Amino acid sequence: MSYTVETINGCTKKLVFNFDGVDLTSQVESVLKEKQKTSNLKGFRKGKAPMGMVKQVYGAQAENDALYRFVSQEFYKAVQEEKLNAVGYPTFGNTDYTDGAKVSFEATVEIFPEFDLADYSKYEFKKEDDKVTDSDIEDLKKRYLEPKAEMVELKDEKAKIEKGMFAVFNFEGEKEDGEKPDNMKAEEFLLEIGSGQFIPGFEDGMIGLTKGAKETIEVTFPADYHEESLREAKVKFHVDVLEIKEKTMPELTDELAKEFGFESAEDFNTKNKERLEASKSKEVQSKLQEEILKKLIEDNKFDVPSALITSQKKSVQEELSNNLKQQGFNDEMVSTYFEKWNMDVEAKAEFQVRSGLILDKLSKKYEVEASESDFDAKLEEMATQSGMDKEQIMTYYKSNDQIKSNIMYAIREEKTFEKLISDIKLK
Questions:
Q1: CB 62 within 8 A of CB 35
Q2: Residues 347-400: pLDDT tens digits?
Q3: pLDDT, average across residues 170-176
Q4: Each residue's pLDDT tens digit, 204-235
């Protein structure tokens, strides 16, 4: 064997090569012949320059090319012989070549780490309740009906303001020195009581007032208020209540349900309950999986290839960038965000890499695989939860190999977690 293997850490190997009596003459000549066919030297037609001139111009380059081919071939032969599960590209160094005498070089390569999983049979986790309540369904219904709600003034003159009601009022703020700044006054201002729009304490002071009431509400501005001159300032707000209103929601009729894309009010309730149940179950399951992964990562210490973290970091940044741009961030703002939160992004990428390696280990232990029937079932589930046309989803995801590969990977992880959870205790 013309090489030795050194272990740098749990995921990095250095191969040191030494060859004696290496003659690369034939390889150099082969490279020069290739160059001759494509060379376009002055005074000669393309590919017709004499070999002597080609060697004079490209000799050094040809020798480097031949040496690189030799180095690469020997390296990859060694990787196969040693059964190294390499990650990314190797780093070559200390290359030395003496024509007809010797070749020596080093190659450092990262590999997938080998590790034994720590015992997890005694793990205990609490799984949250994923039951969908009537309140959950009503909240969802309100979100649908909210855009069609009407603001109605209360007719009862004695009606008192309560949380959730809307007050129309004039107000004027007075500082401790008696000053009444223009930016502390307004007329016919509409405020939802309990929304938290005003200074803490103001909306609570509005509760119980009736139409026509004139009241002074005393508040203290927060210590972190955006306007420095008002931080911790004590201010009296003189309030004049003009109207009290309530937002009234329309009844969910079959006609309205059809506007929302359902067949009837009953279909609306049935399908949304199913979607809420699926969504809440997924949310609870994801939280449980996150807790399990954190514990597994904590108990399984091993070196991770930097190439995997770098690659995953790019994926995290790409996903975050898309989300930020949907929120209105431009390229400069996104760049600033990543500069500020670079360590967090890297930590997230490392967490994903470590959890992926652990889950892969568990998948092999449980002999888990994702099948075509699993894939079809997942697409069926996606169609049901999203309300999208099943055939459209099938056509889209089956025509994109990369997306399909990602879904198959996710299915494999889900099935692995099912096996894993059966081996640990859940409260």
A1: yes
A2: 999 999 999 999 999 999 999 999 999 988 888 888 877 777 778 888 888 788
A3: 95
A4: 999 999 999 999 999 999 999 988 889 999 99
Question: Right CATH number for 150-248 from 3.90.480.20, 3.10.50.40, 2.60.40.10, 3.30.413.10?
Answer: 3.10.50.40
The first and second tokens of residue 388, run together, are: 């999208």
pTM of the model: 0.70
CA-based Rg of the chain, rounded to a whole angstrom?
A: 35
Banded model confidence at residue 1, pLDDT cuts 50, 70, 90: low
Tokens, residue 38: 């494509």
- Residue 93 one-letter amino acid: G
| Of 73, 76, 82, 92, the residue nearest 114 (C-alpha) | 82
Whether domain 263-426 has CATH 3.40.50.720: no
Q: What fold, for 3-111?
A: Alpha-Beta Plaits (3.30.70)
**53 vs 347, residue with greater confidence:** 347
Backbone angles phi, psi at 91, to 5 degrees: -110, 120
Torsion of CA 63, 66, 71, 76, to 10 degrees: 170
How far, in Å, CA of 285 to CA of 265, rounded?
30
Query: Higher-confidence residue: 244 or 21?
Result: 244
Q: What are the structure tokens assigned to 404, written together?
A: 């399909």
- Overall average pLDDT of the 415-422 stretch: 92
Residue 111: the pLDDT is 95
